[in-house]
Design goal:
Number of strands: 0
Order of helices and strands: HHHHHH
Shape: extended
Oligomer: single chain
Radius of gyration: 20 Å
Strand content: under 5%
Largest sheet: none
Low-confidence stretches: none
Number of domains: 1
């Protein structure tokens, strides 16, 4: 009978993808308040990036279009949409204004 390590090696060797649950990956870490706070911040950043990209594409606008209307470089819009960079409240308000939206803080 094969042990877990051998099964994982065989699965990887066959080019198959192993799917892990949230608890498998973050179970222990998620008990930490610091981890939860950081994880939540990242989720907010990714959701915001997705919302901006969705509004932009729904409006058939390019990143350059949004940037020009918000009076900022296109690279700022690209960085925000990537979800890897934070944005100041001023920057978010300028982008929101392009879409006739308001930034609401919870």
């Amino acid at each position: 009978m094969k042990n877990q390590s051998q099964k994982k090696q065989n699965t990887a060797a066959k080019g198959q993808i192993k799917i892990h649950s949230f608890n498998d990956v973050f179970g222990k870490d998620f008990k930490s308040d610091k981890f939860k706070k950081t994880y939540t911040k990242e989720l907010v950043r990714l959701r915001l990036a997705r919302q901006i990209r969705e509004m932009r594409t729904a409006g058939k606008l390019t990143q350059k279009d949004v940037a020009q209307k918000a009076e900022m470089p296109q690279s700022v819009v690209a960085r925000i949409e990537s979800g890897k960079h934070s944005a100041s409240l001023d920057t978010l308000e300028r982008i929101a204004h392009v879409f006739n939206k308001e930034v609401q803080l919870a």
